[in-house]
Design goal:
Two copies of one chain form a homodimer. Chain A is built from six helices and two strands, in the order H-H-H-E-E-H-H-H. Chain A is mostly helical. Chain A has a two-stranded antiparallel ribbon. In chain A, helix 1 (4-18) packs across helix 3 and helix 2 packs across helix 3 (38-50). The radius of gyration of chain A is 18 Å and the shape is elongated. The A-B interface holds A 1-2, 4, 7-8, 10-11, 14, 34-36, 75, 79, 84-85, 87-90, 93, 100, 102-104, 110-111, 113-114, 117-118, 121-122, 125-126, 129, 133-135, 137 and B 1-2, 4, 7-8, 10-11, 14, 34-36, 75, 79, 84-85, 87-90, 93, 100, 102-104, 110-111, 113-114, 117-118, 121-122, 125-126, 129, 133-135, 137. Chain A binds a DNA duplex (30 and 30 nucleotides) through helix 3.
Chain lengths: 137, 137
DNA sequence: TATATATCTACCTAATTGGTAGAATTAGTA
DNA sequence: TACTAATTCTACCAATTAGGTAGATATATA
């Protein structure tokens, strides 16, 4: 399961994508339409902005807009941003690689090869699914 | 990522599978070989037994053995047992279905269809990977 | 009877999740 | 200049989950 934060992020991105190339959207409006607690959404939009997906403007007439084309943003990207590694075990993660602390020797680990395959495949699935996929039906 | 509990369960199952059709294995020995805290492993083996994968015998000369053929036990099964739903959102889960509490109307939900596809595919991947897959190389 | 084993129940600590609160900053408008 | 509307920043918080530990009990064998 993904965290609510991640789900909210995707919902917000969908809303912003529907408005792609148009005007600014207000946090309050997105929150209302997507049914997300406003103060929580603030943090999420900020994170999305820092990650380069959104632009914003402060003050009267301000808000958020989508900077990146909806087809360029994948579920894998957003999942990694909010929930971390896609891999089932840390030792086969790409962006979040870590040694497994119960592993004596990675080279002879029985789990690694198989989990690597699983990760590659699920990553492919999540990469093929973009924000645009959610909109066009 | 899967929980350590789930990972430990898979490691233990692999060990037990290597011994499939032979004698009993001791919790202490599995714990040592697979580098798992013994008391923690006890709980895990008990859960696996209750789920029907293992048989056991108490007392001197006792221990655990694998009841089900290693090729019949999938990563999806064990993941579901210890970590719950494979789906990214509760509303597309099979065994763990729940309404999303931020969802106004499931029928017109933009997320559902796409997340359903993702779940079906990742579930397939995890179902093709069995305990036997980890052993034969 | 002594010992070795699984089984059961309870407990614990730290991190994470899913938020809330409120002040500061920035920009437009009257 | 003062007001207001918006993002941005920092701190906090309660409940849950993760990852265990501790100790007693039941059961089987030698």
């Amino acid at each position: 399961m993904m965290s609510k934060k991640c789900k909210y992020a995707i919902k917000a991105l969908i809303r912003l994508a529907e408005n792609y190339g148009k005007d600014y959207l207000l946090t309050a409006d997105i929150a209302k339409q997507a049914n997300i607690p406003k103060k929580f959404l603030e943090q999420i939009l900020l994170e999305l902005k820092r990650a380069g997906y959104l632009g914003s403007k402060q003050g009267f007439g301000g808000g958020y807009y989508l900077k990146v084309h909806p087809k360029k943003i994948t579920v894998a990207d957003i999942y990694r941003l909010f929930d971390g590694a896609i891999a089932l075990v840390p030792c086969v993660a790409v962006k979040y690689y870590e040694r497994c602390d119960d592993c004596r020797d990675e080279k002879i680990c029985l789990l690694r090869e198989e989990f690597l395959k699983i990760k590659d495949k699920t990553r492919d699935v999540m990469k093929k699914s973009t924000i645009l996929s959610f909109i066009k039906k």
